[in-house]
Write a structure and sequence with these properties.
Layout lengths: L8 E4 L52 H5 L6 E7 L2 E7 L16 E4 L18 E5 L3 E6 L23 E8 L13 E4 L9 H9 L8 E7 L25 H4 L1
Antiparallel strand pairs: 1-4, 2-3, 5-6, 6-9, 7-8, 7-9
Bound molecules: fe (ii) ion.
Length: 254
């Protein structure tokens, strides 16, 4: 089927599903592949007592006029990745030609805006992040804007921590991330397991001592049971070597 997408969407593509993107504007994607695995939804334990993802928030593709409009009798290729090699199937027609389907195996779309829950005065503080998708060796969580954290009567504990079992990768999608002073949208951080970390000094001053009533950050966190490796093949390197210095005294990093 046909499914439009927008900024801030998760698009979940089940393994073995033929798909293609037709972008009308330049689009950048964070691509997360569950190699030799499959994505599932978090259970109540993994969502720390907060409501987990509601599948009724998922949008599925539609067999609409735009879907049918792409069908023709030109030659189309489907590229199949297996064992890190690509095989190509060639069709004398567009093979995305379904006329219907049964069951719940489908591409689905979920936007971070569907995860946002504005806090009511009598509700507890919203979770730091929403557990969104899980695989056997990693989990994906979403940081979304929060309202109400800085209201009086709310106790905010600085969340310095150390993940002993997971490497922590966070991609910053938009907004000003409340714990990071030098991180901009499009960047990512990687904190290996066993390394204590938490708010940068300048962020501590800005958002921990005077907690904002509303935050605007959106980020994707991938907690990995397997070690994260940095791609060393990129010519100028993917790593910002000075990142470690962002925990120096606030006056030196502001
Ligand atoms: Fe962390």
């Amino acid at each position: 089927g046909h499914m439009p997408y927008r900024d801030g969407d998760y698009i979940l593509l089940p393994r073995g599903t033929a798909w293609r993107f037709e972008a009308t504007d330049p689009s950048e994607f964070l691509f997360i592949e569950a190699t030799n695995d499959a994505f599932g939804l978090p259970n109540d334990t993994q969502s720390a007592g907060h409501p987990s993802i509601n599948p009724t928030s998922f949008e599925v593709p539609r067999l609409d006029d735009k879907f049918r409009a792409q069908q023709d009798e030109a030659y189309w290729e489907i590229h199949i990745k297996r064992r890190n090699a690509i095989s190509t199937l060639t069709y004398p027609y567009n093979p995305l030609d379904a006329v219907g389907w049964q069951g719940d195996l489908s591409v689905v779309r979920l936007n971070w805006r569907d995860l946002r829950q504005d806090r009511q005065p009598d509700q507890p503080v919203p979770p730091a992040a929403h557990s969104t998708f899980v695989a056997n060796r990693f989990a994906i969580s979403t940081f979304v804007p929060k309202i109400g954290e800085g209201e009086s009567g709310t106790l905010r504990v600085p969340f310095y921590h150390s993940n002993e079992d997971f490497d922590e990768f966070i991609f910053y999608h938009r907004g000003e991330f409340y714990s990071r002073g030098n991180i901009k949208p499009g960047m990512a951080t990687f904190h290996p397991s066993g390394f204590p970390h938490g708010p940068h000094p300048c962020s501590y001053q800005k958002t921990m001592i005077k907690v904002p009533v509303e935050t605007d950050e959106v980020a994707v966190m991938i907690d990995c049971a397997d070690m994260v490796n940095i791609d060393e093949s990129i010519p100028d390197g993917a790593e910002w070597k000075a990142y470690v210095n962002t925990w120096e005294k606030a006056k030196e990093t502001l």
